[in-house]
From TrEMBL:
Source superkingdom: Bacteria
InterPro entries in alphabetical order: 4Fe4S_Fe-S-bd, UCP012641, Zinc-ribbon_6_bact
Pfam families with a match to the protein in the record: Peptidase_Mx, Zn_ribbon_DZR_6
Name of the protein: 4Fe-4S ferredoxin-type domain-containing protein
4Fe-4S ferredoxin-type domain ranges (all copies): 10-40
Source species of the chain: Neorhodopirellula pilleata
Amino acid sequence: MKTYLCQCGSKLFFHNDRCLNCGASVAMCPSCDELTALDAGSTYGVQCNRDSCTTTYLRCKNGVDHGICNRLVPTDPSGASQLCDYCRLTTVLPDLTVPGNIELWKRLERAKQRVLYAMERSGFPVEGGAPRLSFEFKADTNLPVMTGHEDGRITVNIREADSVAREIARVNFGEPQRTLVGHLRHELGHYFWDRLVRGQRNKEFHALFGDETNPDYSTAMQRYYDQGAPSNWRTEFVSAYASMHPWEDFAETFGAYHDMLTVLATANHFGVTNLELDTFDGLIRGYARVGVMANEFNRDMGLLDLVPEVFVPAVVPKLQFVHSLRVDLV
Ligand SMILES: [Zn+2]
Ligand SMILES: [Zn+2]
Ligand SMILES: [Zn+2]
Ligand SMILES: [Zn+2]
């Protein structure tokens, strides 16, 4: 993610709601698409302090009530506080009276904000379209909550926001990484398959990923959990899980593509690379270079590899297919 500049010249980071240097209240202004200092404005509104920006806003209700969000919402004539465009997409929250749940929910919302913001700017719009996108963040009750996607609705078990539980799951499933942004990118892959591939690009999809009807999803899932991934999965797939079914292959590839794009946008912002982010070949080459460097940074610090995926020849055209789904930005 890029950084932003406060009126005082200090750096601001994506989730900041206050400048640590000058103390100004800051927020993400939807008109300017910038993190910006605020003027106090009227009794129930605030104004972005850029000269060109004249709209009066409110802070998102989740920011005011829980410090979870720094986005602004145009003022409603009623003066009622409202949720921002991203917070509104969450239709089911965990029980916030349970100790610890606010913190877990906050981690989920922040990961969601970061992923949606980058995705929208790379030509994958989250507003509008069919199916409608929504998020449900739920805790296990008598029945376990399965993280997944169905008809535009992305469900995440809030346990995934607990870093100890997530690491146990990561080790048990033998995954090179398991993160909230990773889960969200994967599930958004299923969402965008419904929105941009189903009934529109089926022929190309089948040629690259296989026929999603043969075997059907439940047969494929049963086989994967009985037998595991084929021993040669690395020559065909971006991850072991991608070998389960064409839909999972697409979601894993979609996630890997957005990992690549986000890391390279950051590398460009900090002057590490100077890439055209809409040229596919440049992305692949740039990622190989930045990925090697970033992995060494992580190894220097004793962390897991930042870029565990190796883009073998069979995976590259699948990534290119995801790249081709980008909606041209105006
Ligand atoms: Zn400042
Ligand atoms: Zn503004
Ligand atoms: Zn919000
Ligand atoms: Zn999936």
